[in-house]
């Protein structure tokens, strides 16, 4: 098994990469559910850290992080993403010698119409869930990223 591009938050004792490895070992296999649980455990670890550090460092509650993970296990590639990162696989076309990029994940960014529609559908009672501010679509008028770790969002 190989994990790639896991990101570590400063001050966090838990990384997505080590958490995925732990869950995969515990379950004795790799699956999308194992990666989902690892993302959730990483987020819970950081939120616990925020709770402990809040009184000394209240600014810690305002941080977030994007995370992109790729795992190859038993010949299968698993990709997971929260935030506005994108996984791309390059494939060599032997006949032409060209490398063709194949997108493997989608960014969770309010600049995309489908992301705005999903947010509006998920929050029908909030007319300000997505706001066009200074010519840029933002979630709640603040950030462009829809889903990210450490902000209480879904993976």
What report would you give on this structure?
It catalyses: O-phospho-L-seryl-[protein] + H2O = L-seryl-[protein] + phosphate; O-phospho-L-threonyl-[protein] + H2O = L-threonyl-[protein] + phosphate. Pfam families: PP2C (PF00481). Keywords: Hydrolase, Protein phosphatase. This is protein-serine/threonine phosphatase. GO terms for molecular function: protein serine/threonine phosphatase activity. This protein has 155 residues and is of the alpha+beta class. It folds into 2 domains: 2-106, no CATH class; 109-144, no CATH class. Helix content is 28%, strand content 24%. It contains 3 helices and 7 strands, in the order βααββββαββ. It has helices at residues 16-27, 32-53, 113-122, and strands spanning 2-4, 67-73, 76-82, 88-93, 98-103, 130-133, 136-139. The strands form 3 sheets. A 3-stranded antiparallel β-sheet has the order 1-2-3, covered by helices on one side. Strand 6 (130-133) and strand 7 form a beta hairpin. 26% of the residues are buried. Mean pLDDT is 79; it is low at 1-14 and 150-155.
């Amino acid at each position: 098994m190989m994990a790639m591009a896991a990101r570590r938050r400063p001050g966090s004792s838990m990384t997505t990469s080590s958490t995925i490895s732990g869950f995969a070992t515990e379950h004795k296999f790799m699956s999308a559910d194992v990666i989902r649980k690892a993302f959730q455990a990483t987020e819970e670890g950081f939120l616990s850290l925020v709770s402990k550090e809040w009184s000394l460092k209240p600014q810690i509650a305002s941080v977030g992080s994007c995370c992109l993970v790729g795992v190859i296990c038993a010949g299968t590639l698993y990709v997971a993403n929260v935030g506005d990162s994108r996984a791309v696989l390059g494939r060599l076309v032997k006949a032409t010698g060209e490398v063709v990029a194949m997108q493997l994940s989608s960014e969770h960014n309010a600049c995309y119409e489908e992301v705005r529609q999903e947010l509006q559908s998920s929050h029908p009672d909030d007319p300000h869930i997505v706001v066009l501010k200074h010519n840029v679509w933002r979630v709640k008028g603040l950030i462009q990223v829809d889903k990210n770790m450490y902000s209480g969002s879904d993976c």
